[in-house]
Design a protein that fits this description.
The protein is mainly α and about 220 residues long.
Length: about 220
Amino acid sequence: MKQYILIFLLTVSAVANAQNDRQLIREGNKLYRQKQYAQAEVLYRKAIAQKADNPQAVYNLGCALMMQQKDSAAVVQYQNAAKLEKNKLRQAKSWHNMGVVCQNHQMYGDAVKAYEQALRCNPKDDETRYNLALCKQLNKNNPQQNQQQKKNEEKNDSKENQQNQQQDKNNQDQQKQEKPQEQMSKENAERLLDAAVQDEKATQQRMKKAMQRPQKKQLQKNW
């Protein structure tokens, strides 16, 4: 089936006081057109080092990475470019290329989401609309992938539940360990109190007996 792939290089307008990052982008674009993608990547990275929030440099870096089949790294750059870019049409290009990467890896569900986001930014993009319809059909006709995706989701949910259960068990064990300590402390306190009461009773009995004994008169000496 036909698949539309959009790989655009974003250019910057030449100005009298052109900044260094813009010069690097233009030089990188020349190398890109000559299919020297690795060298272009180096210049785009240098441009980003000069100005990290330059969406054109970030997007073009994603294109250079994609042409070198570094798809995971390319998607990261497209995501960053989409966040930095204020122009909706340029945002659409980032989302479209993310969709292409996902489509190439038969991740049709993710491709559909990316193409839908691209169309939100640029509803007039017929190529994106075609790819979206194609991926929807492929996703619908690929129950095995859908089942695997569902299994992965269930596996993640099961893992999370196991973690929660283990945490609950740890909390219960800790409570069980703390409870005997609290009981021991309470029992010790009660024993100490009982001992103090017994000592007090014994002292009172001795004092009572002593007071009941007849006292011997002391003889007074005559001088």
